[in-house]
Structures are given as C-alpha cells and as structure tokens.
C-alpha cells in the first residue's frame, strides 16, 4: 500500500472545490488543536507519554485527511492551502516546546524556521499572500519524516527500555527530515520566483 498520495484513484482527476466544511479540513483543524494540548502536557505536566500519543494522533490525521480528500474527492482550495500551513505551524510550535523543555537544542528550531521564513518573505513580496503552489513529493516525505521522528524523540525521554534506540532512530528520521526540509524549501523558492516573475510580467503587460 502506498503512503504518498494514498487514496488517489488511477485516471481520476481531482478538482479543488470551494467547500469549507469538509472532513479533511475539519481533521486539519483538529490536528492543529492538538498543539496546545501537547504544549500543556510537556511544559505544564511533564507527561511525555501522553504527549507522545498526542503527536502520534496528530501525525495520523495528517495522513488520514489526505487519504479521505483523494479517495472521496473532497479536495478543496482551502484545504490545499490550509493543510501545509497547519503542518508547518504545528511542527514549529512543537519544536519551540521541545526547546523550552530541553529536549532539543535551538539549532533544530532554527533549521526548521529559516527556510519557512525565507519562503514567507518571498511569497509576501510577489503575492502579498500564499503562493498557492502544489505540495511536492519531497515536501510530503519531509513532513512524514519529521512527524515520525518527533514522537520518537519524546518517547526517548521516558524511563523505559531501549531509550537509546528510540533516540538514535528519532535523529535518523529528524536528520533526513531536515535535509528534505531544506531541499524542498529550495525547490519551493525557485518555484515562487518563477511564478512571481511571471505574475509581475503579466501585470506589467496589462498596465
């Protein structure tokens, strides 16, 4: 069973609708609502076991909402924009929490934030909003790696056997995820520049 683009039907072309209240969009909102719960569990209660479960649920909904959207033709323009934004904000919020809790160092958060900050600046310059680009395969793999590595890293904080194994496995996933994050960021940067210059050229031609 494939995990990337799971639920897609061969030969079926999905058209993004203007729908707002779709199951995938609701799951995206629910996923992001898990962020304050995670923050409270880690910083307020030091409940790393429950925090790990929250992260697993959040990561699972990221796959489930994409599957439902493709399988049942519930893709939407709002979902196409909201889903990656929710992923980025959730990963960054979780990273900030883990830095404050002493689970990871500041360099990890910096490695996550810098590419996104550059992309946001370029997007605002050219479009004054979201550039509305399709999510790349590298971007999807990057997100999956980070969503697997993060709960493993939290799991390594528990007083259970094999914590060293979880720690090493976590950083393998996170390392590959960060590498993919920068590669995807570079590709998005080039795509935004191309689309932005074309937009400026078209706007100038109409002026």
Overview of the structural elements:
With 207 residues, the chain is mostly helical. The chain is built from 6 helices and no strands. It has helices spanning 23-44, 48-71, 77-100, 106-127, 137-155, 163-206.
How is this structure best summarized?
This protein is mainly α.
Q: What is the CA-CA span between the terminal residues?
A: 51 Å
Major beta sheet, specifics?
A: none
Number of beta strands? 0
Radius of gyration, in Å, reads: 18 Å
Q: Summarize the helix and strand pattern as letters.
A: HHHHHH
Instruction: Return residue spans where pLDDT drops below 50 for at least 5 consecutive residues.
Output: none
Derived from helix and strand composition plus strand pairing, the structural class reads mainly alpha
- What is the 3D form? globular
Q: Helix coverage percent of residues?
A: over 70%
**If you average the pLDDT, what whole number results?**
87
Number of helices: 6
Q: Per DSSP, what share of the residues sits in E-state strands of 2 or more residues? A: under 5%
SSE topology:
Layout: H1 23-44, H2 48-71, H3 77-100, H4 106-127, H5 137-155, H6 163-206
State the main characteristics.
about 210 residues, mainly alpha, 6 helices, about 0% strand
